[in-house]
Amino acid sequence: MIKFDNSEPFIKPRGIKFRDGQDSNIRLPKVAIGVFSRYLFKDIVEKFSTKEVGYISGANLERNVYIINYNGVHLTLFMAGVSGAWLCADMEELHAQGVEKFIIFGNCGVLDSKIDDCSIIIPTLAYREEGASYHYVEESDTIPMNPKYVDEFIKILDKYNFDYIKAPTWTTDAFYRETINKIKKYQELGVKTVEMEGASIAAVCKYLNVDYFTFYYAGDNLDSVEWDERSLSGTVNIDKKKEVAILALELAIKIN
After folding, report:
1. What's the CATH number for 31-255?
2. pLDDT at 241 > cutoff 80
3. Number of neighbours of residue 1 by Cβ within 10 angstroms
4. pLDDT in tens, 14-33
5. What is the mean pLDDT of residues 67-91?
6. 104-138 exposure pattern, b = at least 16 Cβ within 10 A, e = fewer
């Protein structure tokens, strides 16, 4: 079992990285939008006024960081790393560069077939079956989610005529070990979704003392005899997913 340790970290984040000609002293806009889908990320960059200002790097991949101008408000835009551990590192680096609030959204699996494809789920509680969150907050089976901005987001959903539910989620870091027994267990607990980052987002933001909001659009269905992929593939139902991205942008300018 991972034990939480609140002593000083040995390695500290130093912020994003920069290419020749980019301003290494830049402070990023305080509200950042993290997008898991590379297709939605590309669409936002191409559709709106954006400026590439740096990048987040790892051993095998670089992801550009942008400042986006949406309805006259400057926001930070990044493609979020998939998995709690990867995303926690992203958030640490962005926070070191000036980000104070995060909005992060992406696809999730559903444990209830009644949830329509691409409809919105607002997670209220995460069951912690990943590892990253245990390095940021004390050990527990669950962690509360989205303590702020739910009411503001629901008003946006109503405006854009999106169906939604509020429900607990199951965060795992091993999607090939989403077993039949575990699916049944979490269904009995009232859990409606499964994903890889929710608990980690809540934990790192609590540790950093920053605000956040995260939400999902429904993808593959695990409430079936056989796995139902539905719109898990990034390009399936892409027009509806592009509408989902607007929800995050609208919330960002509300909380800026």
Report:
1. 3.40.50.1580
2. yes
3. 4
4. 999 999 999 999 999 999 99
5. 96
6. bbbbbbbbbeebebbbbbbbbbbbbbbebbbbbbe
